[in-house]
User: Fold these one by one.
Assistant:
Number 1:
Amino acid sequence: MNSRVTTLIALCLLLLSCGTGRAEEYVWSFDRGADALHWKALNASPEVTAAGFSLVRRDEPFWFVSPQNLNISPGLSYAEFRLKAPETYLRGYLIVKTRDARSWDEEFTLGLPDTYHVYRINIQKDNKTGSPIDAIAFSFGGVDRVYIDYVKIYEPSPVQLIAVYWGEFWSVPFASPSTVNFIETPLIGDYPFVAPLYVLLLVVALCMVALHRPVARQSVVKSLILACVVAGLLFAFRMDYGWYMQWRADGSSLGQRSVDERISRVDGTGAYDFAQSLKRIVPPGATVRIYAGTLQGKAGILEGKVRYYLLPVKVSETARYIAVFKDPAVSYDPAKKSLSRNHEIVARDIELVTSLGKEGFLYRSSEGGHP
Amino acid sequence: MTIMMLAYALAVPATTGFLFVTWCTGSEAGPGALERLVLGFGIGTGMITFETFLLGLVRIPLSSSVIASLQIATAILLGYLLYRSGTPWRRLFGPAAAGSDSSFASAKHLERIVILVLTAWVIAKVLFVLYEGFTLPEHTSDSWEQWSSGAKFFFYEKGLALDSGNEHFFGAGYLKVPRYPLNVPLMQVWVSLCIGEANEVYMKIWNSLFFICMIGLLFLTLRKKTSLMIAILASFFLSTVPLLTYHALVAYADLPLSFYALCAMVSFWDTIDALGSGRVGRARGLLVLMGTFAALCVWTKMEGLFFAAAFSASLGLYCLVKKIPVKQAMVFFAPPALVTVPWYVFLHSINVPVSYGEVGQLGTTIAKGIHFQVLPVIAEQVLFSANFNLIFLFLTLLVIAGYRRIVASNLVYLYAALLSVMAMFLVLYLGSETYRWVLNLTAVNRNILTFIPMSYYVAALTAGRILAGEAPPTADLGK
């Protein structure tokens, strides 16, 4: 055995010994029902079936809360969990609470539907005070059921950390509302992956220059251009992998559905379904007034969506038909036949035409200029 | 039936535009049929939307037959003009005059493999964009709010709702920002009129098609000007620009603007080529083409004014340096004037204030202080984000390495146009309240996106010259 092979074997052994890392401090395996008993489900029912442990939504959103007083030391940086959901694009949240009563959340995008995915999140990243972590909780919205296999909190060894970085690098955040403004940059550790590409570019350029000795201006320039091409190819490979995953996600979530179903799914707020129902009820030529609540704290978006999806039925401030969608500020008084918004009467002498789901209502007023 | 009508909606502007480009480029050897089709698709689309706007102004109810009849009349007129000019059929559908070193057969073995792999990759990307384009409905909020809501309203209204008694005068309540040019909304109206419904998927198919046209145009034009390898590399890298890919799936106006800007740049380079070789007649046609694309930039987004100004300035500089009578270049200004004047007069007549964001406060803000805090954000976005591939680093290296060659050649005028656009955006961010859009990343990357295809084009031309090891500068001076 020559010395190179010996060195290689020694290096491999060294890496393997590094890979064990510190003992995992907290592990909950939910396929064994007992561990699930220590966690608390809010707005959801835990269920153990042959397919595994799952949380079934009862209300929106729902949480899965760890035991309290965990006292996780700041040295344990990563939470790793394996879960699957029948939906994708949606964001899940891991909420972290510290002993000094601070809390923050880390979001993650649900991967391809109906397949288990492993997620790893650095739970200490925002722990500014270094206080021990008291509890963690998962929060989900827009999904009926989530299967959870295990959760563990641990400090990865250097080799494990490389695996974590590798996993993070290839994890694909699906398109979200902000994607139109910027594409989320894959990270390697805390650095954008473009930074190592620049280093690689330089290395490749230097190697090429070395290969094309004697060094001349033209060969240096050519080497730089070729190095840029190589780095650009790697960039393209990683980013187009993201589009490949997006294609798979869209194919499984939208591909086989009708246009109506697709719009309803990408809308995600119920505004489209509400508007479609309204269009079936409101007589031809009639106009509608809309009162809608906020979406993620922003006023006007839901109303705008209903208004948009409602076309060709137009909106008018003086319409007799009044549509109320997800607006807790609106209340109907059947006795006085009035509709108030923020305690101010906005329409009198009205009647409820119909309820559309839990949060949608259509009223008709005898007032108003339009039919 | 819907798909057939959709095909009709795309074929009408493509045909008219194709004939217009053929007429502009003249009967001499010029761009091939495919390149003219790609350019013509953009122009035809703009023609249709502007015509729809004019019809709306004179209160003629919008219908696919009325709009198409005008387009068909235009196509017949262009056909007649081409016949009169003696353009042979061979030329009408013929390929481009082959550029040097552009044949696959003459490539080395390794090069062939690389070309095949990259071609397959680009085709896969195009298929992805088409699949998503035909699958995804409108979904991003700005997309439907700014561009599709007004389109849907105009479609159902069968006009621009310009009766003063109308509660929704000029789309009020639906057209979120009335000062935004109508090219994108009216593209959606045209498709909807053709297929008979405001279909949330097909309405926004334009962006996917513009994306494909852009990749195709870059390849076809660079193949003539550089080598096959550079053409395929440039098209490949443009197709992998992540932000551009995403914009091909939505209905924002940034991608159409970037397409028109690229077309204007390509026409500018052809114009310089024609002027340099003394083909004044051909140059005049190309100037019309360039001016039309500059006009369509203005007709697509308010930022389009920056592009029109940049191309005007760069053309002016070229005429000044080359001592070409400005009269010769005046034809460039006709299309932008034809589009800009009616649009802004109309906005003025209905009391819509015209300003770019809060640019009205430019002077006041500069007096308060320049927003230098945007600089590190912009630097980070162009150099370390995953939005644009490595084009900015690449372009910088090329400028450093080929500075003398660029300055001494006509490439400098392309750089002048590109840098002018960049500079105008920068001044806007530094000197106005729009700096907030940089800090919260809502607009900066989309604005940069509008000149990304131009950057790839200029970079490929520069790289082509450097790699070919052309003896500079003096040989190029005469062109």
Note: The two ends of chain B are 52 Å apart (CA to CA).
Number 2:
Amino acid sequence: MSLPLNTFTQLENFGHSLKASSYRIQIKRAEDIFEAFQLAKQLGLKVTARGTGISYNDVSLNGGGIVLDMTGMNQIQEWDPASGLVRCESGVTLEQLWKRVEPDGWWPSVVSGTMKTTLGGCLATNIHGKNNFQVGPIGEHVVEFTAMTPTGALVTCTPKKNVDLFYAMISGLGMLGVFISITLKMKRIYSGLISVDAWHVPNLSRQLSGLLEHAPDHDYIVGWLDTMKAGKNLGRGQIHAARNLKEGEDPDAQKTLQLVYQHLPDRLFGVMPKSLLHYFMSPFVNNLGWWGVNTAKYISALRDHTFRQSHAEYHFLLDYVPNWERSAGRGGLIQYQSFLPKETAEDAWREMLQLSHQRGLPSYLGVTKRHRPDNFLLTHSVDGFSLAMDFKVTDRNRAKLYQMLQDFDQIVINRGGRFYFAKNSETSAETTRQFLGDAVLTKFYKLKRRCDPNNLLESDLYRRVFL
Amino acid sequence: MRDFVLHARYNPYRLDMLKWKYHYLEDNVSDLIKPASATPLNPRRRGIIIGASDGLGAEIARKLAGEGYSLALLARTKDKLDALCNEINIKDQLACAYVHDVAEYDKVPDLLRKIVADLGGLDLVVFVAGVNYPPGGIDKFNFENDRKMIEVNLIGAMAWLHPISEMFQSAKAGQIVGIASVAGDRGRVGNPGYNTSKAGLATYLEALRNRLTRQGVNVLTVKPGFLKTEMLKAAQGATPFAIEPEKAAADILKAMKKRRQVIYTASIWRWVMLVIQHMPSFIFRRLSF
């Protein structure tokens, strides 16, 4: 067994702000994973599984080690439109999944803001959607999964079988084993459309009370927050709350459920390819330009209204403009997402937003969501809210931004908040210990020893926050 | 076993994990003392310097550490390497030492893999290692010494740069810096073996450049004149335009940033060598340098 040097590949995070070269091994079958583990052990290298590689941070990077490219294991093995159960290989993307189940009147119970993610990655980070407050993270919709541990053992887990591994491997960041096949329960839909209520909120307090009060009446809720606005309108923005249409509510359900109806247009105004749009966005991605964009967006949001749009359009906002993250320029972008209990969120975010304005490092995009706790071991969720903030990285702002994010971490920790391992890239081991707690870490290390006695599975994230 | 408490990201939980890792430690598991991982806001490029213990290599190491590189420093003499590592690591854990003789070609693949794993990737390699054994007069010949120079200066470079080129070519990224010499520009009477080794290295680097530029990899050939290092003592006769290795290292870093292809240091050598390269043979063969 050998490791060809021409597998050496430079991999990146989603925001193109972090690069790490690794030996990439294409995985087609479960046996390939076992062989890769054997090879890694023989050569003294570490292994990480990677799907489409669109996490914001280093969760699927493994500089100098072996990265298993799981995108080749992408077969939907079984789909039963009667029960809504689907069994997929772990490299299947959400795009493949929804395109398969939607025409039959089903939709994945939990989806991320992009459809490009693989199910293995979704489970490893236990993704949440805009409906987290109603249905929890994706892990709560997993009926069964099979994973391979580095010892070569195949373990099958369900919420009732191998329970400790079920709740630890989902959210386990791929550090206990590599997902092979996943059975998920889909959610019934009766239309290809979704009804969206959009209204503006003039400040942070109204933003959070809006999320809190309107969440129970809706299936999905998400807020846009104008992160650049200071003063009494700090935290202003717009809330989009949506509900699935009930049976019979859409007279053209047969038509709207067709895939062609779920198409995200690839041209702007029918003319300009959206793939070129990020070049035109770049000149605006600076403090002044983005202040203008946010202000214009808020003014356009002042018209409160209700409308219907396709599921794909509502859920996959990040896919609207291909390569939009490139508009951040050479240094790329990062996201900082904090999860705070509903009692402390307003104070914490007010302090964080003010701090970012004082230091001249405003975030360009803010997104809020409503959450509820879950039972997974490395959970990021709370009974409260999350705020995701995007920051442009430049050679000049790196040191200042790093310091500010460390200060943010303390604000979040002091108010009982948590972090999400698919997003934040600067969280330290100490901060991780503070929010996860000793008991959780001890349990995680214990499971790690059991599943991975030779410590073969390591990612850059694992080395950053767990070692 | 080295003291892991020195690790830049030390935390109490690491202790538990390391104790456990020691328990299961196998011979081929990488050294535990590694530079901290890169993050978007603390990006670290990773470089290997082959021949880093003193002179130009050590100066390049100091300069690159100042730029925030994580470094693997290779040389034959452990004491000098350790001293340099300690000096660099006072501020941050940036450098690791690896004792290696470049003439031990068979050890390169395993060592390279270990270094890349320890560094967490690879962005740069600087090949500085070189020996110079003058034959002791223009009428003297010494095959053994010539062979050693070819083995270290040329084949040693090929042993390292061959696999690294393949990796960089595949990754479509990276930078290779090779220290050739003005001595490689013409075959002169004083030291045919050294001239040949450096001419061979310069040609090899040029060939790599022609292969790799299209893959996004920069190959920089550095042609130093006289440097005030140990090697200068071996030089016979006058040593014009001799500069401190620190100055040469600064020139090299500047050229790396600009992704230049060939530089002379000191820069005046470009013009001196232009004249020498174009000197007709019937004159050149009558000269005594």
Note: The longest helix of chain B spans residues 143-171.
